[in-house]
Amino acid sequence: MEEELKNFIKVWVSIIISVSYCYYLSTRIKPGVSRLLSVLPVCVLFLLLPLFFSSVHFSGSAAFFFTWLANFKLILFSFDKGPLYPLPQTLSRFIYFTCFPIKSQHNPKSQDDIPKWVFAIKVVVFGVLLRMYDYKQHLSPTMLLIIYSLHIYLELEIGLMLVKALVFISLGCDLEPQFNEPYLATSLQDFWGRRWNLMVTAILRPAVYDPVQRIAEWKMRTDHARFLAVLATFLVSGAVHELIFFYITHEMPTGEVSWFFVLHGVCTAAEVAVKKRTFMRRWKMSHMVSRPLTVGFVVLTTGWLFFPPLIRSGMFEKLPNEVLLFIDFVKPKLFNFSS
Question: Which residue range or ranges hold the Wax synthase domain (predicted)?
Fold first, then answer.
């Protein structure tokens, strides 16, 4: 653990230097290819950062925060697009908004915030899940699928909520939520577009969806261009997930994760196309039906294509073990600090 923390500090020093370079030097270069060339060395460095870690959480977080989101943000920034445009007023804000999956909330709405008691319940449920792994051999495959799905969702949401709280304390600005109760999704479009990992959606739209749709509309009808743009967005997401899986498993991609996103891309695009038909606009499925169908489809396809590479590499043994190890590492230090 101590060696990982040393690597963590070294990585963060290199990140702060690199992002500061982008803020002070690249902003003096005209937007376009020239600025893109100036940030490419930083993008290459961010591709290598996850390799400095051996733990699943550190390597996975580095891959998600820097290799994926920060690189996409910097590429968009090269053309004056994305969450880094307009340029944040201070270097500290630029570093925070580059390195973390956060986005400033321009029209804060208190009713959108998750009640504290709901978050507390999720933390308790996550704690129970960690202990359930001790009885893994007695659980059915269906129960394990549910536990794995809850684990991934809760760990992501709790972790990103803690990051959001840290940034809020540091910057004092309102931030958009990262998740919007995905288990309440009424369609795949609703799940991927408005409820799951919203920062990724905000990045992929200007980086992939909008350019592909604009280019495709030169050669085909608008609805066909939209279908192609949705599919391209999911293909890019699948490719990046394959890269993240490589960082955390150290095994060559099998293509299963890419097929998961291809399947969801085709189904989401088809769903959007069907919804635009005249007869579908007059008919609306009850949420009592659409919610379990949507969540059930996501969970089943996740168990079929998304989880197998993680299960084979033993990730679901390492994940809870690392969390418990971290708690054991931090607990005595907190007690010593308080005393």
Answer: 176-262
